[in-house]
Every structure is written in structure tokens, then in C-alpha cells.
Amino acid sequence: MVQAGKLHSQEARRIQWTTYSNLKMWFDNWGRDLVELGFAIKLNDDGDVHIPDAQLGRIINFNETCLSMDGSGKSRGGRPEVVFYNPCLPLVGRGTSKSSLTTTMITGSSALGKAIPPHFQFQLSAQSVETQRLRAEMVLFFPNISCTFGMPERTLRNCTVGTNEKGGMDDHEFELYIKNNILPLYPDAMDAPG
């Protein structure tokens, strides 16, 4: 018998939390917050909420994922790897992803289904141009993303690239990502309801 499972208690806690009542509570609170912040209107006393299309474009979800193509074995970042194993044998299974030569990619979309431009975070520990395995010229071949978001008209946005020693998103890199990639999508944003 072969099983697949998460071998980490953090994932087990997520699964245990994902009940109907917890999800309903989360969405009810989210709907109430959207109405209070002016992103949505309450349709009736049952709590049904309507979010206009103009506001759906202002709600975005993005996440990071680990891209690996070398099959090597160091783990890092993101959700725990899935391990295939036989419960009758010692756990010698290898993760199906999360390798040492990986790139972090961040992408996502608005609630209208419009893609945000992807960002790639590469590992770069080279001390000189001669020892680099990553060439900055590659960004010339990345496709542009046509988007509107909070801009007055449809605009082409570039995929972006960042580098650091680990190739992941630490606090500093995440702050740069928000400032340089997300905030420019909404030049009309202001601290006001709606």
C-alpha cells in the first residue's frame, strides 16, 4: 500500500481548521469588512454582499511558489513537500519538489481573474560576472502582461526579477516587491473608503 501525505504538523493544523463553521465565519467577517471599508454593498438582511466589478479589480491574491528543475535535495520555503511512502516501511521517501537550485516565483490575479505580472526571485551568490550562471539579459525575452488594475487605461507591465543569496523572499525582498510591483498597479489608491 502506498500513501501520500504531509509529514508536518503545521499542515495538519491547517486541515483541522478547515471546517464549514470556520470557513463560514471567515467569509462572514470578510464580507462585513468589505462593506465597512466601502468595497462592497450589503444586498439584504441575510448578509448577502455584492462587490461591484470596479472593486473586484482592486482585490488581489498573490502567492509564491518554488520552481525547481534540477531534482536535487535541499528543502526550503513554502508549504511542506508531499512525500510518497509505504506506511509499513521506514520513511525513506523523497519530496516531490523543494530542491536546492530553485527559483521563487510570485504571481496571482485580481478577483476579476486578471493576472498580475509575475516576479522571479533568483539565487545569486556569484562574486564576479565570470562566475554568474544567471544573465540579466534574459528579462528581454519575458512576455509583458497587459493589465488595467487602478490605471486609467490598459498598460503593458514587465515581469520582474530579483536576486539574493538564497533565492527566496525575505522581509526586505517582500517589501521591495510590494513597493516596486504591487503599488504601481494602483496609482489611484488612497487611504479612503472604497
Textual characterization of the structure:
This protein has helices at residues 9-17, 20-36, 53-56, 171-182; strands at 3-6, 41-42, 49-50, 60-68, 82-85, 102-110, 115-123, 145-147, 155-157, 160-164. The chain is an alpha+beta fold and 194 residues long. It has one domain. The strands form 4 sheets. It has a 4-stranded mixed sheet, covered by helices on one side. Residues 93-99 have low confidence and may be disordered.
Main beta sheet, described? 4 strands, mixed
Determine the strand fraction and express it as a percent band. 25-35%
Structural class: alpha+beta
What form results from the Cα inertia axes? flat
Q: Report the strand count.
A: 10
Span from first to last CA? Answer: 54 Å
Rg is 21 Å
| Side-by-side strand order of the widest sheet | 4-6-7-10
Helix content: 10-25%
Low-confidence stretches: 93-99
**How many separate domains?**
1
User: What is the residue-mean pLDDT, rounded to a whole number?
Assistant: 80
The total of helices stands at 4
Which characteristics define this entry?
two-stranded antiparallel ribbon; 194 residues; 4 helices; 22% helix; alpha+beta; four-stranded mixed β-sheet
Layout of strands and helices, then pairs:
Layout: E1 3-6, H1 9-17, H2 20-36, E2 41-42, E3 49-50, H3 53-56, E4 60-68, E5 82-85, E6 102-110, E7 115-123, E8 145-147, E9 155-157, E10 160-164, H4 171-182
Parallel strand pairs: 7-10
Antiparallel strand pairs: 1-5, 2-3, 4-6, 6-7, 8-9
Summarize the entry for a quick read.
This protein is of the alpha+beta class. 22% of the residues lie in helices and 26% in strands. The longest helix has 17 residues, at 20-36.
